[in-house]
Structures are given as C-alpha cells and as structure tokens.
Amino acid sequence: MADLGLYENFLEHARITESLLYRRQSTIFREMDIAFEIPEPEFVGLFRLNKSLCRDLIQELEPHMPGARSGISTSSKVLSTLSFYASGSYQRTIGASAHHKMHQVSVSNCVRAVTQALNNEHFRRKYIHFPHSREERNIIKNGFYQKFRIPGVIGCIDGTHIAIVRPSQNEERFFNRKRYHSLNTQIICDSELNILSVDASHGGATHDSFIWNHHPLKSHLENLHQVQNDTLWFLGDSGYALRPTMMTPILNTEPDSPQRYYSDLHCRARNTVERCIGLLKSRWRCLLVDRKLHYHPTTAGLIVNACVVLHNICNAARMPVTPLTPQEEENEINMQISPETPARLPARRDHLAAGESVRNTLVERLWSER
What we know:
Blueprint: H1 2-35, H2 40-47, H3 51-61, H4 74-87, H5 92-96, H6 104-118, H7 121-127, H8 134-148, E1 153-163, E2 182-189, E3 195-199, H9 208-213, H10 216-226, E4 233-235, E5 246-247, H11 258-283, H12 297-316, H13 326-334, H14 349-369
Parallel strand pairs: 1-4, 4-5
Antiparallel strand pairs: 1-2, 2-3
C-alpha cells in the first residue's frame, strides 16, 4: 500500500509539472501571436527585421536550435535574442513590450542558443561571403570604381572595439589603450556596406595590423596578386602597413598634387567601412561601447559574428535603421582607438618598396584620369 501511495504521488507530481509546462508554453505562444500582430514599423523598431524576414529566419534557425526542453519556442528564443541585440538590454523589452515575459536568465540562455545557431557554418558561409571567383571579385571592384573612381579595390578594412566585461583570465589581452576591456574586431566590407569578413577573436590590446598580418585572407590576397596576377587591394588607414595588396593614405601631402588627389579619393572610399561599422552598431546596439557585453570573450565574439550575419540579411533587404543619438555617436567615437603607424611590425623593406611601387602607379593613373 505504501508503494501504491508513492506511485500515486509520483503521477500527481508529473501531472502538475506537465500542466504547468503546457500553460507556460501556451502563454508564450499567445504572446508570440501578439508580437506578430503589432504594426510593422514597431516590429522593425523592436527586432530590426520585418515580419517576413523574421519568420524566414525562425524557420531557417529551427533545425540548428537545441530541443525545446525549457518550454520556450524557437520563435520566442529568436525574438528575445533579436530584441537584446537591438537594444543591448535584457530589461527594455520586458517592460516596454508584450511579446514575452521571460526572466533575465531565460533571455540570456536564449541569446546563447540563438547566437550559437547563427554561428553555424551554414549561416557563416551563406551570409558572410568573401568573393572567391574572379567574376565575384570584379563585381566588387566595379562597385567601388563606379562610386569612387578607384580601380582594383576589393574591400575596405578597419578595426572596431566592442566593449566587454573584465575577463577572469588573460585580462591584459583585452585591456585597450582607452583603458577598458574590449574585443578588437576586424571588419572588411564592400561598397554596398555588406560585410565580407569579420574576425572578433582578438582582445582590445591587439593592434589592427597584427590582426591583419595573422589573418588567412592576407596570404590569400598575396597569392591572387603574385600567382594569379590579379590586380586587387584593400583600402586601410595609416595603422596598416603599405603593401601591394593594402593601399594606405599618403600623409602630409601638398595641395593640388597627385598625392593629395589620391589621398582624398582614398579617404572618401575608405570611409565606407566606417559607415558600415556605424550602421552595424546602430542596428545592433549591444555592440556599442556604452552597452558592454556581459559574456566571456569567446561568447562575445560569437555575438559579434551573429550580428554581422543579421546585418547582411537586413542590408540585403534594405531595412531601415534608427541613427545613433548625438551622445551615443560622440561616446562611440571617443572610445574607439585612433589609427597609429604599425611601428611594432618587423621591418620588411622589400615588401614596403613593392607596396610603394604599386601605390605610385595608382597615384599616377588616378591623376591622369581625373
């Protein structure tokens, strides 16, 4: 009889647990319906994607998401994560919107799950695509040439700092010259502000040129230049070393000279990557210095990658974005690291001479075609 009583208690506990889980799921599903019923502009303001893109994303993420043991649907996980990416806060949408009522810990778990899924090779390959064929490279070159009249440009490159909480290990690697902890994230974009490559694996103490020198794309471009005789280069600021595949500005040029004309065009074109980074952070404000990612550096880097995937999705669909406030923009500019000459790099006079030769040829061509 005692065993029967225990068994009945067990069944009653299981029934109550199942009932609570069902009610929780039903509540979340009803709130999901409410989320998709709000006006489109408000929906885009909260989640950055429109409803159609959001539904497509949820469907595409479904096979890459862990099972719903928590009782939270994939839709709720995705919307909660988009909301966090967009605002940089766990609390804002909980108080301001009826689309979910999850605890902060639950939202954080959703962010981890969706971030992990967006870093799946499927999404990285599909949405962050560096051109591999000559035909694809020519399309990007033509885009830059049509806008800025500079031939051979395959992308613009720059680093941007993403603030993180102080790591418990190797803290010195993440402490930058502005005296806060960050990831120094390398961004490469095309003339349409699509991000072709992102590297968020380095700490804020790492110099832009060091990241580029140890990136596989560097040797790939050198191979295309030397072996396949492809005329192509990135545009970088003075923090990068001048090379045949990396065109940098000429400092202290004389007015109305070929060198000044080149540097002016270079500045206008290279500003593309600064605008791209500004758009990325305006859209996904969890990346702003003021917000600070409260995650381990590895997870923070995955969040950056996920935001880049979503940036390219939004960019392709020409989704609108709310500009940063003047205060946000000022804080972001002030807390970024100004370019400096790569003096810590090993001296390679042959590489520098080759870069100067290519740049001089480009300067002369631009001056003759002005």
